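Sample entry (364 residues):
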Amino acid sequence: MASLKSLIISYITLLSLFHFEFSNAVKGGYWSPDNGLKASDIDSTLFTHLFCAFANLNLQTYQLTISPGCQTFPRTIRQKNSGVMALLSIGGGSAKSSDYNNMASQPSSRKAFIDSSISLATSNGYNGLDLDWEQQSKTEEMDHLATLLTEWRAAIKAQAPNLILTAALHFRPMANSVATFPAKAISDNLDWVNVMAYDFYAPGYGPPPYFTRPHAALNDPTGAKVSGSDGINAWIKAGVPANKLVLGVPFYGHAWTLASSNNNGIMAPATGNQNTYVPEGTPSYTQIKKFISQNGAKVVYNSSYVAYYCFSGTTWIAYDDTQAIATKVAYAKNTASLLGYFAWQINQDLNWALSTKASQTWGS
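Predicted structure, serialized as tokens:
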């Protein structure tokens, strides 16, 4: 009997390791309960992995809390696609890096965080966990991230060996000239990295003068190496293999205000003021298509950047439409041999047009 039990444990461990090293292709998308799209309305047949954003960090206990929408998310999305994987994403762009650094700096708080995450995932039917710790700027944050990932993976192996562990990280493996992401710890402990290949530029970023730019270009013809493909190449060069990288595509744009409606191409002079077309100047794909229709906006696709922009009057919007999405997904699969792609975020799509194009382009 003891021998049979040992064989079973060894078999389960082998399956876990096989899963860790050979994850299936990722057709991913992020969703949050307050984004206007009900989980039951998600066409989960278009995805292999869906992320519920976000679990929040309690700053007193360093344990995680989730909303009712995230509690029911895994069960809901499997109603249309029983094979879709659900991952619980933690943190987000509005979470403070210092809070996560404080958690990751001490053994006791790391343990509270890790144990809480595994408990939440397993009790609510999730297949995995995703860390979205952003805005790192210091070397110590990177050191603490490495320690956190190493201990997290060890705890998952011990407590729930089938759980996937991922992270959404900066488009290249350095936050600035001094803070470099711990590529070895990332490669050793994560199933994959969701590379956030967007928000390279936005109105008001940096000092003046301001110029319109695509915020999620696949290529950078200027040679500045600020693009999705440049970021992917940098991650691979840093030591994270291509089959552990997933390319991010945005389902939203950035709206700029042109200095003159007569100068309206890429690198056209712009003001640093917030564009008022939508709050925060980040219209969804749905809003962009409505803007084009209602204003007779001119649409331009630039194949050198792999980016769209449209303009009417002094409003200029950079975004991705179906051709850009298809080109990026084809690059991810055929050129770079990546694990897959993901979208931020799926509620911003229009009748699933971008999600369908991405899924069809990748294929089965």
